[in-house]
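Translate sequence into structure tokens.
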Amino acid sequence: MPDLKLEKRHLAASSGAVIGIDEAGRGPWAGPVTAAAFWINPNCFDQLPPELDDSKKLSPAKRALIFAALTGGEHAFSVVSIAAAEIDQIGINGATFLAMRQAAKELQALLISRRNAAISLCLVDGNIDPDLGMPIKTVIKGDTVSCSIAAASIIAKETRDNLMRDLARDHAVYGWNRNMGYGTKSHSDALQAHGISEHHRRCFAPIKRFLQS
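Result follows.
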């Protein structure tokens, strides 16, 4: 389970804010990639949902409950999605890092507007520096290590899933309300039967192969 050791260690040496950053949706064939930045209010460390964990380890129902608890409290967050068309232009890594940079920038502005301390450390899931323009610490499997990153992972995942459910209303044949744009057999079968949509990532190999066939 994630904990607050990294956050508390930094706060002991700095008065600045510590945030967590994570993404959802790097791998799907369709839809946006989404990144979230999350700040846990140090005055509310003891009020976090006890089951806060890596979003991938939570059932959809449990994740939705924790999402509501995180977004309805004294914490602060920002979430940014980059659509498939822009993913095709700058690649999935470029789009992911762009979403992270924008989310961190928006959260910084939000914290300052609320007269909180500016960000002094970004805890980023993974081992690649996304060039945020702020001090960062990359954390491998960070959503299982840091509560801030775990919270960001839940915000990103829940937000993106909701976006895919919205897109599914106008593109029901692909089953995005169930597969969230991932390359399932039913999704592949729908591509063969109905072709691609404007929300498919043309730069992804499976979609490229379909277009070339």
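Note: The helical segments are 5-11, 60-71, 84-113, 147-170, 176-179, 185-194, 205-212.
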